[in-house]
């Protein structure tokens, strides 16, 4: 009872009439936390590739809604077996795939095995180039979740790679949020199933009600339903006020789930200047991304974004957001997950496997002792996870050809 009472006090003190009036005058929805204007390294992937002895092209891909994405390609020295696209998790960039260094990292193993290796960066990544019209610090820039990263970013990158290589299909490897995004893409635009030779999903977040964030996600849910969209999402409004009091809980939900500590920009950065401000540092993430995950954790459903009753009726012709049509995911899928992952609990991954079409080719591999970050940080991933991913891609390459 203590937590609900404290939350009620927060609401009474901080969401009063004067603030409500200000939000009404502004008439602007914010998905953007107040951001640090410090300089960031926007070519970290290229720096790490060069340091590890690989040369790469740094390319620009424009999405249909105007975002300018950075894509890397390790320069091929001979005819390649097939194209492989690797995409990062939330609050990360393509540099995560270099974390373990030469020989150990999955990207390098794929390249040495003869594949044409590409890396994509979402619109949230500090390595991408912003938007052709919107300022990166504007609220409208950050009006997206993993849904748009899938349907807009990944679709644009996939089409670009297939056009550049002249291939009909490519292999996709996605860690964490990348899996949510590509599942949204394949559900909403099923034609892209035919463009993917295989789908390797590592620690895929879809059904997350069993993980460590379930209790706080459900605690916030009644408050989300009580307030108008403009009040709940206005900068410094409800989420910020709650997190001021419940900092530890918000660190759990927004910090660890967001996986800021990818290590590549601190342990492997050439300058070593990048110093994240801890678990509540919300750089390079949209509030809408985090809220979408909070929503699916609380609901136990892999569904589209909940805009509230009125907007849902307008957008979806339904009072509640629809579930993603996982039965439309017909690509060959391999799921890689750990029994010690508290962010993406193994039970949720197994539920995802049951929701995918029975006719689709599906593989599941559970890695004992692996937590969420072990899939790119733990050297043991080289001989376990990456060996299985490479074996799966090789098998589907034979099928593709």
Automatic annotation (TrEMBL):
Question: So where's the catalytic machinery, residue-wise?
Answer: 176, 341, 372
Origin organism of this chain?
Answer: Anopheles epiroticus
Q: Name one GO molecular function term.
A: hydrolase activity, acting on ester bonds
Q: Keyword Flavoprotein, does the record have it? A: no
Family per UniProt?
Belongs to the AB hydrolase superfamily. Lipase family.
Domain AB hydrolase-1 stretches: 83-361
What's the short name of a Pfam family annotated to this entry? Abhydrolase_1
Quick check: keyword Hydrolase in the entry?
Answer: yes
Q: Which UniProt keywords apply?
A: Glycoprotein, Hydrolase, Lipid degradation, Lipid metabolism, Signal
Quote the protein name from its UniProt record: Lipase
Residues of the signal peptide: 1-22
- What GO terms describe the biological role, i.e. biological process, of this protein? lipid catabolic process
Taxonomic superkingdom: Eukaryota
């Amino acid at each position: 009872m203590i937590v609900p009472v404290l939350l009620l006090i927060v609401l009474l003190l901080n969401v009063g009439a004067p603030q409500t009036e200000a939000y009404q005058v502004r008439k602007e929805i914010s998905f953007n936390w107040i951001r640090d204007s410090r300089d960031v390294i926007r070519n970290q992937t290229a720096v790490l590739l060069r340091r590890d002895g690989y040369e790469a092209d740094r390319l620009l891909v424009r999405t249909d809604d105007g975002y300018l994405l950075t894509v890397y390609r390790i320069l091929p020295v001979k005819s390649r077996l097939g194209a492989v696209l690797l995409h990062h998790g939330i609050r990360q960039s393509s540099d995560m795939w270099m974390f373990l260094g030469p020989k150990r990292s999955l990207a390098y193993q794929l390249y040495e095995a003869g594949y044409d290796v590409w890396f994509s960066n979402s619109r949230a990544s500090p390595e991408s180039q912003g938007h052709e019209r919107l300022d990166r610090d504007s609220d409208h820039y950050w009006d997206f979740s993993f849904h748009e990263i899938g349907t807009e970013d990944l679709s644009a990158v996939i089409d670009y790679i297939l056009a550049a290589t002249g291939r009909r299909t490519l292999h996709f490897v996605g860690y964490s949020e990348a899996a949510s995004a590509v599942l949204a893409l394949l559900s909403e635009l099923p034609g892209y199933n035919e463009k993917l030779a295989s789908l390797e999903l590592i620690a895929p977040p879809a059904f997350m009600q069993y993980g460590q964030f379930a209790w706080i996600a459900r605690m916030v849910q009644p408050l989300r339903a009580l307030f108008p969209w403009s009040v709940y999402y206005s900068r410094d409004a409800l989420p910020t006020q709650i997190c001021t009091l419940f900092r530890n809980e918000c660190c759990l939900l927004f910090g660890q789930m967001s996986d800021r500590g990818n290590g590549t920009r601190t342990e492997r950065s050439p300058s070593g200047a990048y110093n994240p401000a801890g678990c509540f540092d919300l750089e390079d993430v949209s509030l809408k991304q985090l809220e979408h995950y909070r929503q699916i954790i609380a609901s136990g459903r892999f569904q589209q974004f909940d805009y509230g009753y009125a907007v849902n009726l307008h957008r979806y012709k339904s009072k509640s957001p629809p579930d993603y049509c996982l039965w439309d995911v017909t690509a060959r899928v391999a799921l890689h997950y750990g029994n010690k992952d508290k962010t993406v609990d193994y039970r949720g991954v197994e539920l995802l496997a049951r929701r995918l079409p029975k006719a689709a080719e599906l593989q599941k591999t559970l890695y004992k002792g692996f937590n969420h970050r072990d899939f790119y940080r733990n050297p043991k991933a080289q001989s376990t996870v990456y060996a299985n991913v490479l074996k799966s891609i090789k098998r589907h390459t034979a099928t593709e050809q």
